[in-house]
Sequence to fold (253 residues):
Amino acid sequence: MNTVRVRDIEIGAGIPKICVPIVGITKEDIVDEAKTFDSIPVDVVEWRADWFEGVFDMEQVLDVLKELREALGNTPLLMTFRTSKEGGEKTIEDAVYTELNIRAAQSGYVDLVDVEVFAGDKIVKEIIEGAHAAGVKVVASNHDFFKTPDKDEIIRRLRKMQESGADIPKIAVMPQNKKDVLTLLAATEEMVSEYADRPIITMSMAGTGVISRLCGEVFGSALTFGSAKKASAPGQMGVNDLNTVLTLLHNAL
Fold:
């Protein structure tokens, strides 16, 4: 299994890394929150650009990214535009989505970008190639806020992401019952033990699935999301509690 190094963080080694999302609407809210992160346990920061009121003005986006980079110092920054069809705040045209991700990668301010693997093979290929040309890593993602696919389908989607050339495959699913959480964990273990040659991120959402955000080191998920202020998805724990549990589990293994 290869790890992915982003600045001083090695994703895929040791304790699952903690990613904290920023979901501010205004530039001031976004940057002000980033300035508080030196007091919490955070390995990666995700800027959810789909929440930003000026996201369709590229100059405003670059301005925010510049100030985020200054506020975060050496902490890795992941930029994500989560589309409305996968639980995000806004719809976006394909060409705009592609340009947003590639220009962010070329800016020198971000370390990773997120591309939804079902955005279309041409779009995914273009973004991955553009990001890699700029020295930026890519998280390929899929989010199902309604159900948990069966184990084989979860693995199929993760393998599709890996085969696309993305650096880190990611899937988040919604459990309807406790067995769905076990399905997600079984798919994670099988993907890691039989197919993955790079780190993966998996999670079962909402309160029912919260255990999946804690036990990544056991089953193979390399990064988990915790909230500093506002959660970006159902079931995210506060970052300090998350760090405590991850550390306790790590020390017991």
User: Anything to note?
Assistant: The chain has a mean pLDDT of 96.
